[in-house]
Write a structure and sequence with these properties.
Number of strands: 2
Radius of gyration: 18 Å
Number of helices: 6
Structural class: mainly alpha
Helix content: 55-70%
Largest sheet: 2 strands, antiparallel
Order of helices and strands: HHHHEEHH
Distance between the termini: 31 Å
Length: 147
């Protein structure tokens, strides 16, 4: 359901949140066999690509505040998939995958890839590319408005 005002102007935020919920359900189902949620998969993948990022750098990359990131990392640490270590100076902490984290990520990648390819095929590559562009332009417009 898309919220709108009395003139029929749709709420962009409600639409995007609804789409995000549906996509999250889709990817969670694809990853179900691995025990990962798509949010966890994304976090593990980002940590892997960034190679021992600081908590601050990881939060910036994911567009999260440090408190939210710390909350999101807690179950990954408890599962033994990530660990935090001292960073290059006393004020920073780095995040890295454990061997178990690398294994669960390797197990999950093909499941995520199949879901991604299937979605792009069903929706059409032009549609998914246009969606990515539209979302990036929307975020840029919001950022410009807030400056």
């Amino acid at each position: 359901m898309v919220l709108s005002d009395d003139t029929g102007l749709a709420c962009t935020c409600s639409l995007v949140r609804g789409v995000a919920r549906r996509l999250t359900q889709y990817y969670d189902e694809a990853l179900k066999e691995t025990g990962l949620k798509v949010t966890q998969y994304g976090l593990l993948s980002t940590i892997d690509r960034m190679d021992r990022p600081s908590v601050t750098d990881l939060a910036e990359r994911l567009d999260l505040d440090r408190t939210t990131l710390t909350r999101n990392l807690a179950p990954l640490r408890q599962a033994g998939w990530v660990r935090q270590a001292a960073g290059p100076d006393r004020r920073t902490r780095s995040v890295e995958l454990t061997e178990t984290g690398r294994e669960i990520l390797a197990l999950a990648r093909p499941h995520w890839r199949r879901a991604e390819v299937a979605l792009r095929q069903r929706a059409g590559g032009d549609v998914t590319s246009a969606l990515e562009d539209a979302l990036m332009q929307t975020v840029a417009a919001v950022d410009a408005q807030q400056q």
